[in-house]
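User: Assemble these into one structure.

Assistant: Restating your components, then the assembled model:
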Amino acid sequence: MRPQIVLFGDSITEQSLRAGGWGVDLANTFSRKADVLIRGYGGYNTKWALFLLHQLFPLMWLLFQDTTKPPVATTIFFGANDAALSGRSSERQHVPIEEYKENLRKIVHHLKECSSTMLIVLITPPPICEEGRNAFAQSLYGENARKLPERTNEVTGQYAKACVETAEELGVRFINLWSKMQETDGWQKKFLSDGLHLTAEGNAVVYQEVTRVFKEAWLSPDEMPLDFPHHSQIDYKNPESAFQQKCL
Amino acid sequence: MRPQIVLFGDSITEQSLRAGGWGVDLANTFSRKADVLIRGYGGYNTKWALFLLHQLFPLMWLLFQDTTKPPVATTIFFGANDAALSGRSSERQHVPIEEYKENLRKIVHHLKECSSTMLIVLITPPPICEEGRNAFAQSLYGENARKLPERTNEVTGQYAKACVETAEELGVRFINLWSKMQETDGWQKKFLSDGLHLTAEGNAVVYQEVTRVFKEAWLSPDEMPLDFPHHSQIDYKNPESAFQQKCL
């Protein structure tokens, strides 16, 4: 059975399956080596993610180890919605910061229970461009657009910090996307399409960071074998031998 | 467990995972409804594909139906390499046409054995642009390029016909890509990048044909539920209820 890499998160993970998305690029990088499964849920916060946990990552895996296997790696990429401000137009998505940390802990603990060897990577939310969010709201609702921001970069930065702290506390790897993106001049429009979601270049940053952290751990496509022989390795007069070797 | 759609084939399936590929578009269309798994093997013909069959589609599925499930649909997309000419530079990939038909029969029979309800779609090889193949060979090898074509459109057309005949004989659906592409003026460069592999527009044709045939059977993403509630359906004061309903 081919190893699986699961990308678990909100819309930024769900949309990673679109053309130019970081999930697509990752899947292509692991072509014939691992399957990349997208488990992205637009609009979800960590509170709602908890309801999915046992179905997406069933402990049943432990009982049927010959036929099913947990993923070799999982990225956990929530926080952009948790950080929506209380008392503003996206209030329903808001999760208090301590609860956000506790929810991340629950997710990581559950994954560790599924597999002690799973590579777990926490990803912080990307930064917020408030101007971009305003322009987006106005493009949708015109004069009826909300007057006050529903997310700020400052508050999202607190959630990013909380995510990093939780990763360090739990001893799992992390990507501080909030900080990383802001190292580049013009990140507001270069990486964000509507002040929150990712442009093609923003997707490329996530792809580069995820592959970097995977490699720094132990998960490098260059070191993984193809699932079956490359066609050039097959002796056309005696094809069996290439496949027998593979099975040894 | 989310339904799976498997794309089984040669390089034209393997490359479908690249940006703009038909596999990526298909995966995006079935986002949160089914996983699209790419099982494409560049350079492979149906003879070599047979060696993979029991590992990619294990009959073990029948024994562990609670934990593992066969795919709901599989595309079988071989023939471009089988149709390489005997006695020419790609001879090692050549499979005689009657053996090609017999191999397709074996693949289909095996999939039917795995699951009597699996939607099976045979796809013929695309047409060949001999001029494009020559230009490609010269771009690689210059004056040392082979003088005689290794594939011709006429012979590939015979394999396409054999593929259609086999599908009709076995009562499974098919896509005659060889014919379909040639309905469009300028198909040689519009759909083929090197006289054999697909351009972005060529990928779009395969995507459209596969989704059409899937829908004509019964597999339509529009009629499939999301795996979990859309975020707008979640009552933020009582999120449990949305997920309880889902479990009923």
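The beta strands of chain B are 4-9, 35-40, 73-77, 119-123, 173-175.
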